[in-house]
Design goal:
CATH class of chain A: Mainly Alpha
CATH topology of chain A: MetI-like fold
Radius of gyration of chain B: 26 Å
Order of helices and strands of chain A: HHHHHHHHHHHHHH
CATH architecture of chain A: Orthogonal Bundle
Structural class of chain A: mainly alpha
Distance between the termini of chain B: 34 Å
Shape of chain A: globular
Helix content of chain A: 55-70%
Number of domains of chain A: 1
Largest interface: A-B, 94 and 101 residues
CATH topology of the largest domain in chain B: MetI-like fold
Strand content of chain A: under 5%
Number of domains of chain B: 2
Number of helices of chain A: 14
Largest sheet of chain A: none
Oligomer: heterodimer
CATH architecture of the largest domain in chain B: Orthogonal Bundle
CATH class of the largest domain in chain B: Mainly Alpha
Largest sheet of chain B: 2 strands, antiparallel
């Protein structure tokens, strides 16, 4: 089934090797094939996710019997109730929200400020600072030195380890800087004549004008922060109260993958209420939905922004 | 007015380098206040940890001071290249990375070509929006979906059974020979739609006159795809290839770590997992750092080579 995303199917190759003379038939054949291909793509993309939603809404002990596709057989909210009744998952949800909001705000403010200074052609340190930031896109000191840095800075097992190490990204900086380059210079000049300093120009003129590109960056940063689990895994895993939603999901995933022989392992979630109703599979499905819905509600509306932002970012420096 | 200004700038270009003087620094102090703290930040978080690379040349003991550490030269690097486990990990990383690279590029270009041929804007938009969806899901969620789909009662086995392609469910995740393919297909599933964005933008900037000329010459749709559209996005493909070559030792970490199990361990472990296992789990910091350095050095070297070759050939380049 997944193969359909890879192979273009037989139609185009067949048509290339044996050209179709009838010029009216050919476009129809092509369009039919193309539409069918796109329908397959849509199904392959959406089905697993829709199925997860359905499983999350189906009674756990019924799901085990199999045969749940796109409609719940025994509809229930029980799985979601268990997820939100569980203190661990709800706390992790709050931590995830907090880190996402904070990361996004800090990234937007700091990265835009840096991008503004590096967009000023008269700035004496423009070139060296730009180079120092761009180089960070291509190398990485690695996991172990990074871990020791967090340890030396006393960031291990604190909330701040989610936010502070990733406040600025060079890629985002370039995207914003390229965008600032399209803002007419005369705006900055006239503000300067009125006596505004660089900081005032940045806050009052540049930052508000950057809204479209900031929408893109906000989406990238927020998605990255919301989806990350590795920092929780290596930096804060001994402190349950700092766990994030994705990390809780990861624990559920690995316990249910390793526990095919022992399906009663539910990671402490929902054990108290009707344990016969709630299975690891249903809990995982419900947490998956909770963890993905916030992003899925937002991204379709940001499409026109991120398509532009991504292409600005690919402009070579 | 505007034009004379522009001309002026072109003429003066060679003199662009300004002398750093105290009065200039004083003039620009606000720019300096705004950027230098951020410079300090990046030096601390991205550059200072490179100092930690010294661990790879020591028998590092966390309890000791730097001056008390025992220096051992390239011992850990030598060990790595004699270690069967590391060589296996290297093979897995390269294999999965190349599979991801080839599958990723080919599928994204094909999908972009086909999307580009859709004339109904609403339908095109809808397909695009849906195809972006998996990109926004975390690898945790994607791995969960992959594991569910490939389970013995999962949808993949279900469909294959109903089509009578197999007579009993295949244990996809228990055989090493399937692992690389599963990782490759999962990557395609997650990223193919997202990867088309750049290609589609490149396609939309191809001069329509080229298509008109091809029409006059009686070119078929396929000929236009192969002789106008594909050459039109060639610079984009080359830039993206150069960027990817630098990531050849990054086969991904999450899906291998989460999907791997004892049965497929010989096929699933990558350099990143090796570093994690030896470094944080077993406390052999020196060996893990050596493996990490190897990865970074190879990546940067490959990036520079790819960039240089591309420059020689007169193609696009990154740096």
């Amino acid at each position: 089934m997944a193969n359909q995303t890879i192979s273009p199917g037989p139609a185009p190759t067949a048509a290339v090797t044996r050209p179709i003379r009838n010029s009216r038939l050919e476009p129809i054949l092509f369009n039919t094939f193309n539409t069918l291909f796109m329908i397959c793509l849509v199904i392959v993309t959406l089905y697993p996710f829709l199925n997860t939603i359905v499983v999350s809404l189906n009674a756990g002990n019924d799901t085990i019997r199999g045969g749940i596709y796109l409609w719940p057989r025994e509809f229930t909210w029980q799985n979601y109730k268990a997820v939100f009744a569980s203190g661990t998952i709800f706390d992790a949800f709050l931590i995830s929200v907090a880190r996402t909001v904070l990361s996004t705000l800090l990234n937007l403010g700091l990265t835009t400020m840096l991008a503004y200074t590096l967009s000023r052609k008269e700035y004496v340190f423009r070139k060296p600072i730009t180079l120092i930031f761009i180089l960070t896109m291509y190398f990485n000191a690695g996991l172990i030195p990074g871990y020791f840095l967090m340890k030396d800075l006393h960031l291990l097992n604190t909330f701040w380890v989610y936010v502070i190490p990733s406040m600025i990204s060079a890629f985002n900086m370039i995207v914003i800087r390229t965008y600032i380059g399209t803002i007419p210079e005369s705006l900055v000049e006239s503000a300067r004549i009125d006596g505004a300093g660089d900081f005032k120009i940045f806050i009052r003129i540049i930052f508000p004008l950057c809204k479209p590109v900031l929408a893109t960056i906000a989406l990238f940063v927020a998605v990255g922060a919301w989806n990350s689990w590795f920092d929780a895994f290596i930096y804060t895993s001994s402190h349950q109260e700092l766990s994030t939603l994705q990390y809780e999901l990861m624990k559920l995933l690995s316990s249910s993958m390793n526990a095919n022989s022992n399906p009663s392992v539910t990671n402490g979630v929902g054990m108290t209420q009707g344990a016969d109703m709630i299975t690891p599979i249903s809990i995982r499905a419900a947490v998956t939905v909770v963890a993905s819905v916030p992003i899925l509600l937002v991204y379709p509306f940001m499409q026109k922004y991120f398509v532009v932002g991504l292409n600005v970012g690919s402009v070579k420096e | 007015m505007d034009q004379t200004l522009k001309k002026d700038r072109v003429v003066r270009k060679p003199k662009k380098d300004k002398k750093v003087s105290w009065s200039l620094i004083k003039d620009q102090r606000q720019l300096i206040y705004m950027s230098v703290p951020l410079l300090a930040y990046i030096l601390l978080f991205a550059y200072y940890p490179i100092w930690g690379w010294t661990m790879a040349f020591q028998d590092y003991k966390p309890a000791k001071d730097f001056s008390e550490q025992k220096w051992v030269g390239f011992k850990h690097f030598e060990f790595l290249f004699k270690d069967d486990n590391f060589l296996q990990v290297l093979r897995n990383t390269l294999a999965m990375s190349i599979i991801n690279l080839v599958l990723g590029f080919v599928t994204a270009i094909i999908l972009a070509l086909l999307l580009n041929e859709i004339k109904k804007l609403f339908w095109k938009r809808t397909v695009q929006t849906i195809s972006y969806l998996p990109h926004f899901l975390s690898w945790i969620i994607v791995t969960g979906i992959v594991a569910t789909s490939l389970a013995s009662d999962g949808i993949v086995n279900d469909v294959l059974m109903k089509l009578h392609l197999i007579s009993e469910p295949v244990q996809w995740l228990s055989h090493g020979k399937y692992f690389w393919g599963i990782v490759g297909v999962s990557n395609v599933w997650k990223e193919v739609g997202w990867s088309t964005i750049i290609y589609l933008a490149a396609m939309s900037s191809i001069d329509p006159a080229l298509y008109e000329a091809a029409d006059i010459d009686g070119a078929s749709r396929y000929r236009k795809m192969f002789h106008v559209t594909l050459p039109g996005i060639k610079p984009t493909i080359i830039i993206l290839l150069i960027m990817q070559v630098g990531h050849i030792l990054e086969a991904g970490f999450e899906i291998q770590y989460l999907l791997g199990n004892g049965l497929v361990v010989d096929w699933s472990q990558t350099i990143d997992i090796f570093v994690l296992k030896y470094g944080l789990a077993q406390g052999n910091y020196s060996l893990a750092t050596a493996a990490g350095i190897f990865k970074t050095v190879v990546s940067v070297t490959l990036l520079l080579i790819a960039n240089g070759v591309s420059k020689r050939l007169g193609e696009e380049r990154l740096l």
